Amino acid sequence: MAHADNRFDTKVAIVTGSGxxxxxxxAEALADRGAAVVVADINAEAAEKVAAGIVAAxxxxxxxxxxVSDPESAAAMVAATVSEFDGVDYLVNNAAIFGGMKLxxxxxxxxxxxxxxxxxxxxxxxxxxxxxxxxxRARGGGAxxxxxxxxxxxxxxxxxxxxxxxxxxxxxxSRELGWMNxxxxxxxxxxxxxxxxxxxxxxxxxxxxxxTIPLSRMGTPEDLLGMFVFLLSDEARWITGQIFNVDxxxxxxS
Length: 254
Hints:
- 44% of the residues lie in helices and 15% in strands.
- The protein contains nine helices and seven strands; from the N terminus they run βαβαβαβααβαβαααβ.
- It has a seven-stranded parallel β-sheet, sandwiched between helices.
- Helix 2 links the parallel strand 2 and strand 3.
- The protein starts with 11 loop residues before the first strand and ends in an 8-residue tail after the last strand.
- This is Short-chain dehydrogenase.
- Pfam families: adh_short_C2.
């Protein structure tokens, strides 16, 4: 495999929700840089396809079906990772219900759907962190990236609520894990042109959305990779508890 660089040669990473879209780009970027990657997704077939692609390109990957809202499933994912690759250095909490999600208001959304949604989009990051941190600590530390969104600072019903929760979870966990030398940060993308996004945001609305972005275009998964690789690398060794917007300037916050 032609490594972009080899900075992650000895590292082992778990990327949840990596059977497609942004998660797939994250998994492939790690493999390109030498990491062994666990491609974890609730869609086992999609995970297998991405992992097979990484292996075919000369990388190291293991596909693992996971339901991030289920502690037993998350524990099995970590156990499989340790069994296959001898440890865990990086956890990327990217899994979320997004593509095809219901559009509704907090006041009217079906309560069971709301609870399921939060159990994946917010609690899932904590479930996976709880499953993985002891293995990370055993390696002398590591890094966690949580997937946030600019929706955290906008009206976007239960989706925005979950992402605001992810931001707070990132900050809270950075305090609990810092002494173990485990860093926790979040990336908050703006609108990214993925299949999942196209299934939620109608094309006409995407045009309106682009008008609100100073850099005047939708983002791509590749636009996120610079920040992603940086935050996992030793270059970010003194950065934890932070949320980084990669959004074409969509959100102004101070």
